[in-house]
Design a protein that fits this description.
It comes from Acacia crassicarpa (northern wattle). By secondary structure, the protein is mostly helical. The protein is built from 4 helices and 2 strands; from the N terminus they run ββαααα. The chain has a two-stranded antiparallel ribbon with strand order 1-2. A hairpin with a 7-residue loop joins β1 and β2. α1 crosses α2.
Length: about 90
């Protein structure tokens, strides 16, 4: 069952974010198209999602979803990242 979460971005308009939207934001955040997300790319993504402390939030995402501890979110870790964002970040 898809999960939809409501959050308030910085422009204070309410927006519904779901798994597809999170995946699209993360895909756009991969600026160098290497199919991996670095800390700086995650920072931009969570900032776009309305995080107040994007660097800290990006670090937390990386800590929780980076299973092989290489400092990047690879395609195999993306599902864990999306689940983490939807279940913890936007409660």
């Amino acid at each position: 069952m898809p999960v939809a979460v409501v959050f308030k971005p910085k422009n204070t308009e309410t927006e519904v974010i779901d798994e597809q939207r999170v995946r699209k934001i993360l895909e756009i955040a991969d600026e160098n198209n290497d199919k991996k997300l670095s800390l700086s790319e995650l920072e931009k993504a969570v900032s776009k999602m309305g995080a107040w402390c994007p660097l800290f939030r990006a670090w937390r995402c990386l800590r929780n979803a980076d299973a092989n501890n290489d400092g990047y979110i690879s395609p195999s870790e993306l599902d864990d990242l999306v689940r983490y964002i939807l279940n913890w970040y936007y409660r």
